[in-house]
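> example.struct
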């Protein structure tokens, strides 16, 4: 059995490598290409997702701390971290939007 590998791109621009049986063209495996091979906008979108996750972590922590009656000084510190993370996320959105 011969195997042929091709690079395919999905509708969002993410690149995958597919390995297919050379005779029957049956898909054997499909895996995401390394980040270094992804287009710039895809890498920016991944950065955006990471920054959102960071913001959500601080947001969830602050909300839980308020609900559990954590001292005000801690809430203020958590709020500052949450706001900084949100600013980073907005920056990532703007970079992603501006990318071609």
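> example.seq
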């Amino acid at each position: 059995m011969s195997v042929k590998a091709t690079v395919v791109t999905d509708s969002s621009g993410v690149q995958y490598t597919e390995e297919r049986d050379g005779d029957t063209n049956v898909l054997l495996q499909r895996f995401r290409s390394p980040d270094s091979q992804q287009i710039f906008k895809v890498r920016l979108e991944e950065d955006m997702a990471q920054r959102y996750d960071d913001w959500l972590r601080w947001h969830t922590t602050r909300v839980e701390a308020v609900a559990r009656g954590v001292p005000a000084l801690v809430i203020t510190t958590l709020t500052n971290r949450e706001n900084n993370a949100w600013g980073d996320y907005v920056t990532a959105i703007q970079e992603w939007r501006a990318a071609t």
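> remarks
DSSP finds two helices and three strands in the chain.
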